[in-house]
Amino acid sequence: MSQTTFTPQAASRMSPQEVRSSASLAAVIGLRMLGLFMIIPVFTIYARTVPGGENATTVGIAIGIYGFVQALFYIPYGSLSDFLGRKVVIAIGLAIFAVGSVVAALAHDMNGLIVGRAIQGLGAVSSAVIAFVADLTSEANRTKAMAMVGGFIGISYAIAIVSAPVLFGWIGMSGIFMLIAALAVLAIAVVIWIVPTPDARPVHRKAPFSTVLRNVELLRLNVGVFALHATQIALFVVIPRALVAAGLPVAHHWQMYLPVMGLTFVLMVPAVIVAEKYGKMKPVLLGAIALLLLGQVLLAAEPHTLWLVATFLFIYFLGFNILEACQPSLVSKLAPGERKGAAMGVYNTTQSLGYAVGGAGGGWVLAHWNANAVFGACSVLVFVWLIIAAGMAPPPQRGHGGATTGQH
Predict the structure, then answer these.
(1) What InterPro entries does this protein map onto (predicted)?
(2) Are residues 93 and 44 in the same domain?
(3) How many angstroms separate the CA atoms of 217 and 402, rounded?
(4) Contact 260, 310 (CB under 8 A)
(5) In a domain, 252, yes or no
(6) 58, 73, 90, 147: which has the highest count of C-beta atoms within 10 A?
(7) CB atoms closer than 10 angstroms to residue 195
(8) What is the band of 247 on the pLDDT scale with cuts at 50, 70, 90?
(9) Co-location of 182 and 326 in the same domain
């Protein structure tokens, strides 16, 4: 058993420069993710109105191609930012993302939308942003900085899910894509003028990916984030259409998403506190995965009335939001200091692959079977994840005075 102790000041307080750096970079990711998340609740409804959109498989590809392309470019963007500088690479990636959004806005059929979504995926700047966060924060405060980034993503997700149906009614899907482009341009401005520029380029020790890939506990988390986002995207291939079929027009979908997301965010907080403060990370994670499984099983087995769908989504997203908050923090704890960047790179890559498989796979299953089959397939995937996660070792615990203890 070894022990690493931080000074009370380092463990408890971020410097003003660190707060500015973390908040501004979190805003960059939040603005970008806000635009992406706006697509999820309404895209399958919009697709029905354009040529080629009647094929659920094609719609799934249009949703998932973004994640597939992004997964291919996460690691190259991170490496390129080591040589050209973080700001330059992030700004270029955001500009490419904005171009893809404009292409999608001007598309007149599914092929054009697929091209636009693929170009969006080329702007895979998250790995460079996370590396920039690491550059601008001390090791002692890095988990707090990452938590700030995660919080912005969570807020963006909630805002997008609630606002997208309303915006879709006001400005249509083309308008949403143009809004996404504008948000990307705003994020570029934040990068250039608000994010601090480090005095000197930090020197990082190389982290062999083979070492990260041999870490069994990190592999469990990679499987988890893949399953988490695959089921999330597959769910939204089906749910908007199910709500419309149940009598809720798309412009009113926010009336369901708002209370569901609001309540799950409130109830997520005590679960995260129990996990982090009281050392109950493993039971909290397993409980959250069980909630995902229960929500998917109920969606597969029960009628899709509005009240039942709202209840099942509440169960699912309570587990989802807990996992979204806890898993990245757990990655940073399990990976040794010099390997955190590599671990997050692999984690982000598998997350994007889950996004791609969830969109394409969910569309394919829906095209060949039905909505219940999509939820059934997701249930199987989550059940496999639960079995894998059940064998996880208790993660390192934070001891008294800000100390972190664990086996080495």
Answers:
(1) MFS, MFS_dom, MFS_trans_sf, MFS_Transporters, Tet-R_TetA/multi-R_MdtG-like
(2) yes
(3) 23
(4) yes
(5) yes
(6) 90
(7) 23
(8) very high
(9) no
The whole-number pLDDT of residue 104 equals 96
> Rounded distance, CA 402 to CA 381, Å?
37
The reported pLDDT for the residue numbered 9 is 40
Among 37, 41, 108, which residue's Cα sits nearest to residue 66?
37
Q: What is the DSSP letter of 51?
A: T
Find the angle CA(130)-CA(135)-CA(138) to the nearest 5 degrees: 105
Residue 331 lies in a domain: yes
Cα–Cα distance between 282 and 111 in angstroms, integer?
44
Are the C-beta atoms of residues 89 and 124 closer than 8 Å to each other? no
Looking at residue 53, what DSSP letter applies?
A: T
Structural domain range at position 155 = 9-197
Q: Yes or no: say if 95 and 89 are a contact pair by the CB < 8 Å rule.
A: no
Measure the CA–CA gap between 88 and 91, rounded to whole angstroms. Answer: 5
For residues 258 and 159, the answer to whether their CB atoms sit within 8 Å is: no
What is d(CA 113, CA 73) in angstroms, rounded to the nearest whole number? Answer: 20
Domain limit, last residue, from 172, 197, 222: 197
Q: Answer whether residue 1 is part of any domain.
A: no
Residues 88 and 183 in one domain: yes
Are 164 and 233 contained in the same domain?
A: no
Which sign does the torsion angle of CA 193, 194, 200, 201 carry?
negative
Same domain, 155 and 285: no
Answer for the pair 216, 349: CB distance below 8 angstroms, yes or no: no
Give the number of other CB atoms < 10 A from CB of residue 144: 18
Q: What CATH number is given to the structural domain containing 357?
A: 1.20.1250.20
At 376-399, the pLDDT tens digits run 999 999 999 999 999 998 876 654
d(CA 376, CA 202): 48
Report the C-alpha gap between 7 and 23 in whole angstroms. Answer: 23
- Pairing mode, if any, of strands 397-398 and 2-4? unpaired
Type of residue numbered 159: I
Helix (H, G, I), strand (E, B) or coil at 194: coil
Name the β-bridge partners of 3.
Answer: 405
**Rounded CA separation 263/25 (Å):** 27
Number of domains in the chain: 2
Name the nearest CA neighbour of 263 among 200, 340, 315, 211: 315
The residue count of the chain comes to 408
pLDDT at 219 over 70: yes
How many C-beta atoms surround the C-beta of residue 33 within 10 A?
A: 21
Phi and psi at 137, nearest 5°, equal -130, 155
Average pLDDT over residues 139-152: 74
